[in-house]
Structure formats: C-alpha cells, structure tokens
Amino acid sequence: MQDTIISSVDGLYNIYKEPTELVQKKQLDRLDVHCRNFIALSPFLVLGTYGDDGTADASPRGDAAGFVKVVDDHTLLLPDRPGNNRLDTMINIIHNPAVGLLFMVPGINETLRVNGDAVITTDPELLAEHAINEKLPTSILKISVKAAYLHCAKALIRSRLWAPETQVERSSFPSLGKIIADQIGNLDADEADRRLAESYKNRLY
To answer: What is the mean pLDDT of the chain?
Structure first.
C-alpha cells in the first residue's frame, strides 16, 4: 500500500500550489491601521503556545471588544483573567516565548493572525490600566509582534459560524457539569453545574 503520510516541504508542494505573490505580500511585520481596528473590535481570540516538552496548546481568551490593547505597531497587551489555574499557556511561555493569536469579530468572516513573542508581566501600572469592576488581572502578556496577517473568509463561510440558523440548542448537548461527572466519576453533576454557574456569575474578573 502506498504511503500517504507527507513528511517534507517538497511533498507538500507536490499536492498544494505555491502561494501567490499577493498572499505572500499580505503578511506584515507590524500592526497597520486595519489590524489595529480589527483588534479593537475583537472580543475573542485563540492563543497558541508551544512548550519545551514538544506539546502545543491553544487556549480561548475573551472579554469586551478591545480587551487586547495595542500599544504601538509592534506591541500588544493581553490581560489574564481568572481561569482554571492549569497555567498551560503561562508555563509554555516561560519555556518558549513564541505565541500565535487568532482574533475573531462576530459578524465578520475574516480573521486576523498575529505571531510574536510574549513575556508575562505584573507591572502595577499595567495591571491597574486593565482593571474591571476594580478587579485587577492576575498578570498581563506583553506581546512583541513579528507578523500580522488578515485571513480571507473561506473557513468561516464554510462553517457558517455567525449564521443564526446554525446555532446549536444548548439543551441538545450535556451540561459541563454532567460531562465532568461522566469523565471523572464520583461527582454529582447538579452540584458541579451549580458551582460552575456560581463561578460564571461571581468570578469572571
């Protein structure tokens, strides 16, 4: 049987076309006015990191639109709000500063990819600037931008991500408390859901 695993760049370009000159030129080494405006509109991103043990991680980050601050053409500030304290992202950054961010804006099918290096800071002035309801973020990621690229809309058009008619009824999928109870065992699903609801209500910040 013929091997179907692609393990070289040459092998990739045997099945894919070379990127066009336009696609290559679209990648910037900074944030221009369009990237800045997109980030200002974005309430959600996915943050990718890579650990020293060879494992990759992608983590959601979200808040009110514009929660990621653009300092200048090469610098972003991303506040870290309360989470599950696994710290997968933070530990990865300690070992490997490279990060990838994918910004999304509800209703816009294009997405913005930003790559760079991150450091974790607890600078009191920066924390204070990102306070919400008088609650400070635990830390802030200061990201040095190396590349910025606006993706075309094909992925979101195919997925129909923002189309109201594609939204899934929440009742059609088990609650997170039920899922955790099934996965871990010896846990009351209703109690788990109650704790999650309390956390969502009182510990977002």
So the answer is: 95
Can you spell out the DSSP letters for 138-188?
A: SEEEEEEEEEEEEEPSHHHHHHTTT-GGGPPPGGGS--HHHHHHHHH-S--
* pTM, entire model: 0.94
Is 75 in contact with 142 (CB distance < 8 Å)?
Answer: yes
Distance of alpha carbon 24 from alpha carbon 71, whole angstroms: 26
- String of DSSP letters for 63-106: -STT-SEEEETTEEEEEE----S--HHHHHHHH--EEEEEEEET
The DSSP letter of residue 20 is: P
Answer whether residue 22 shows pLDDT above 70. Answer: yes
Distance CA 89, CA 59 (A): 7
